[in-house]
Amino acid sequence: MTGRSEERSFERVGFSGFGVGVEFRVSDPEIAEQLRTCLPEYCVELSQGEFEIVHLDAAGSDIVIREEGKPQSKELVERDGAINYLEMMVVEKLLVGAKDFVHLHAAGCVSDGRAILAIGDTGAGKSTTATTWSLDGLPVLGDDTVLLDSDGHAVPFKRLFKSNPELLRSMGHDPADTPLWRADLEEAWFDPRPHAGWGGRAKVKVVAVLRFRSDMEGYAVDEIKPTALVREMLNGSLESGLKGHEGFDAILKAVGDAKAVQMEFGPGQSAARALLEI
After folding, report:
1. Among 27, 119, 126, 274, whose CB has the most other CB atoms within 10 angstroms?
2. Distance CA 88, CA 157 (A)
3. For residues 90-112, b (16+ Cβ closer than 10 Å) or e, as one string?
């Protein structure tokens, strides 16, 4: 769809989820297509409704970002790599809408109707774990953010994974087949939908605290106390989600009768598969 804005043609790209809507008015067709590709589960056909409006104007090698109604919001980002910034911008707006959920810094999948969660800091191996699950045929809940509802059930946040191209190759998947692939980047945007897709709301069976060690072969699993797991989950909850006693209660319900473990592991996929056997 095209329109006129400040005498320039633009394409309209909309996203909606968790009661939040945002419309981008994009003067660069390539950026518009990248936007549609990066968050396909939340990309929608625009109709009547309450949508925030964001203008994206190409300016040479840069993109000018301006949120309508916010005069001080004008930002300038480099065109090369702008899609990462814009995808995060949409994610942050969606998570604001998902304010009634705990936002766990976690990967997750559904196995035999129950959720397996893997929590950890950046670099702990969450994306490797989630990508392995997906390529092994399991519906996933996310590779970086998983939601917990007020009953403590896990709910997917359907954002494309950032996966290691070498991991994809080692599992027989050509990273050139991933969306927005560029050989000069260190990560590939991985879409679970052509595999087992996204899982649904599920009661939690296992929560593992991940510790990646590049010098380790295989993996080691140790049980931890539920109180220690609750502390890890509280520390691993994003500020954008449910906090205070409501967030604490949701985490307590999630832990419930779930098995709590810490897993140290090295390169490879064996750890992700072992979590399914706990």
Report:
1. 126
2. 13
3. bbebbbebbeebbbbbbbbbbbe
pLDDT surpassing 50 at residue 6: no
Q: Which domain holds residue 233?
A: 102-275
pLDDT of residue 277 exceeding 60: yes
In 3D, which of 142, 177, 176, 175 has the Cα closest to residue 156?
A: 142
Inter-axis angle of helices 244-255 and 226-235, nearest 10? 130
Tell me the mean pLDDT in the region 139-157: 98
Average pLDDT rounded to a whole number, residues 240-253:
96
Domain boundary among 97, 114, 129: 97
Element holding 95 (H helix, E strand): helix 82-97
201, burial (CB in 10 Å: exposed 0-12, middle 13-18, buried 19+): middle
Domain count, the chain: 2
Could you say which of 67, 97, 127 is where a domain stops?
97
d(CA 76, CA 61): 10
- 158 and 113 co-located in one domain: yes
**What are the residues facing 66 on neighbouring strands?**
55
Q: Which amino acid is at 113?
A: G
Q: End-to-end CA distance of the chain, in Å?
A: 50
Comparing 1 with 104, which gets the higher pLDDT? 104
Question: How many Å apart are CA 73 and CA 66, to the nearest integer?
Answer: 6
116-125 per-position pLDDT tens digit:
999 999 889 9
DSSP 60: T
